[in-house]
Write a sequence for this structure.
């Protein structure tokens, strides 16, 4: 259990040599969810797009390959923020911050990504409401989480650091954050034979 708890802590906030390994391993594990999320986001040239919980910056780099967008990443891990900044090599900004602590002006972004980070937010939607405010009117967000039916079988989730989601719980946290019911959709898609992913698409 101690090993599972340590791994859960690294997923929440990677640090040290183990955190570097976890970040790179997650890049590999998340290649399909990232690709599907970017398909749903459909980035366009000239947009300003935020990646919350950007990790090593792999999604930001993939996003830039699709469109000449202006990109900004935030991550609460100093290690991940540094790795992402190095990976972007000056073509985007990276800040050390969480969804709760980021301090962008209202209506700053055209779109946002939230990949595998809502596990660490409370169900009251307060943290996500900060993102709602930073989106421009009509701005869109795509979020990804693994369905709780798969995650419940993973030992690290029993450490208590991850909030698990089904379709209704994911929909509800966006409603609590201020997104209108008819501006939210949740899609379930297979990631592997045994893992289902959930994608929330919401528009301010």
């Amino acid at each position: 259990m101690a090993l599972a708890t340590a791994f859960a802590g690294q997923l929440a906030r990677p640090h040290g040599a183990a955190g570097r390994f976890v970040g790179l391993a997650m890049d590999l594990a998340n290649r399909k969810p990232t690709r599907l999320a970017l398909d749903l986001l459909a980035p366009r040239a000239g947009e300003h797009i935020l990646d919350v919980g950007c990790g090593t910056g792999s999604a930001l780099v993939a996003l830039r390959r699709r469109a000449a967008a202006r990109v900004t990443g935030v991550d609460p891990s100093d290690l991940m923020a540094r790795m992402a900044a190095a990976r972007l090599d000056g073509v985007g900004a990276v800040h050390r911050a969480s969804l709760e602590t980021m301090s962008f002006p209202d209506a700053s972004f055209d779109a946002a990504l939230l990949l595998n980070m809502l596990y660490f937010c409370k169900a009251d939607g307060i943290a996500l409401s900060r993102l709602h405010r930073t989106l421009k009117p009509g701005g869109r967000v795509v979020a990804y989480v693994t369905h709780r039916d798969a995650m419940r079988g993973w030992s690290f989730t029993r450490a208590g650091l991850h909030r698990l989601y089904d379709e209704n719980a994911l929909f509800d946290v966006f409603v609590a954050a201020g997104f209108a019911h008819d501006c939210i959709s949740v899609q379930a898609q297979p990631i592997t034979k045994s893992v289902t992913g959930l994608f929330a698409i919401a528009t301010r």
Observations:
- The first helix runs from residue 2 to 12.
- The chain has one domain: 2-203.
- The two ends are 41 Å apart (CA to CA).
- Residues 2-203 form a domain with the Rossmann fold fold (CATH 3.40.50.150).
